[in-house]
Design goal:
heterodimer, A: mainly beta, 6-stranded mixed β-sheet, 4-stranded antiparallel β-sheet, B: 7-stranded mixed β-sheet
């Protein structure tokens, strides 16, 4: 069975602070993808990153960075120097790399509020 | 290029009524998915179409839910009769069937409230 846990339901920080969103996953598959999606107030889910289970290199994209640790089954997301526009619900998700199996398993989401 | 479009954005219906949600995927995307988020919980998979065929409908909660994708273009999800526990946000997503870019692109969701 696959499962994604985002233990932080809500986080509130002041603008310019760094914030880390935790994601822990469970899977018996040896190959899989991990994702982060952002849901701004407008409602749509915006793709942020995909990480292959074979690639444990950390990734940085501007103020965003992701830390993938296979040993602890975690895929954490850090926003550096947060801004009010980062306020959203963030979802971590898992997908097995099996032909035909395309469905995503999501965590419960973390509501991030950046206060000015 | 237009993204995934869902209609309506909001729907409020009474228990026992019927509601039909529509999803227009990105043009050329053979994969189409329906997901649902209920009461602030995780987003859960409902079903997956490849063109007009149902590839996986393991997430459909019960036989009050009927999804169709005639012609392999847009899809509809009908709830009949609606119950209170059906309230939530219904997301549609689409992706290419081949190629390296297999990201699922999501629509803005339909917020369904059953009263």
């Amino acid at each position: 069975a696959q499962k994604v846990t985002q233990a932080q339901t809500e986080i509130s920080v002041v603008e310019k602070e760094d914030v880390t969103l935790d994601c822990v996953y469970e899977t018996r598959d040896t190959t899989y993808y991990l994702f982060w999606y952002k849901q701004p107030p407008s409602g749509e889910l915006v793709f942020l990153i995909r990480r292959n289970s074979f690639d444990e290199q950390n990734e940085i994209s501007g103020r965003y960075s992701w830390n993938f640790q296979k040993s602890t089954s975690s895929f954490n997301f850090t926003i550096t120097a947060s801004q009010v526009v980062d306020s959203a619900v963030y979802f971590c998700a898992l997908r097995a790399i099996i032909q035909g199996a395309q469905k995503l398993v999501f965590g419960q989401g973390t509501r991030l509020t950046i206060n000015p | 290029e237009a993204g995934v479009t869902q209609f309506p954005s909001h729907s409020v219906i009474e228990k026992g009524q019927t509601v039909t949600l529509r999803c227009d995927p990105i043009s050329g995307h053979d994969n189409l998915y329906w997901y649902r988020r209920v009461m602030g919980k995780e987003i859960k998979f409902l079903l997956h179409f490849v063109k007009e065929s149902k590839q996986d409908e393991s997430g459909m909660p019960n036989n009050r839910f009927l999804a169709e994708r005639t012609g392999g273009t847009y899809s509809t999800l009908k709830v009949q009769p609606a119950e209170l526990e059906d309230s939530g946000v219904y997301f549609c997503a689409s992706s290419l069937i081949r190629g390296k870019n297999t990201e699922a692109f999501f629509g803005q969701g339909t917020r369904l409230t059953v009263v």
